[in-house]
Specification:
about 70 residues; three-stranded antiparallel beta sheet; alpha+beta; elongated
Length: about 70
């Protein structure tokens, strides 16, 4: 990314509330890769983004983590 760039990405949290409802009772077909916040940071760092450029915010529902990468 260029200096001054911003990238936003997100993940569904592995420890999210009502996780089993989505795939169990509701029978949602898409197989979503749920990750912990730690796994999200590791994945971004593995792609070459320094940890100090990454901030993570968990949504009020606890379902998602939104990662902002600012250079």
């Amino acid at each position: 990314m260029r200096d001054g760039g911003l990238m936003i990405t997100g993940n569904m949290n592995v420890n999210r509330p009502q996780k089993d409802f989505l795939h169990g009772l509701m029978g949602w077909v898409p197989n979503v890769m749920m990750r912990s916040i730690k796994e999200g940071f590791k994945l971004l760092q593995k792609s070459g983004i320094p940890k100090e450029f990454i901030t993570a915010t968990v949504t009020a529902s606890g379902v998602y983590t939104v990662f902002a990468i600012e250079t």
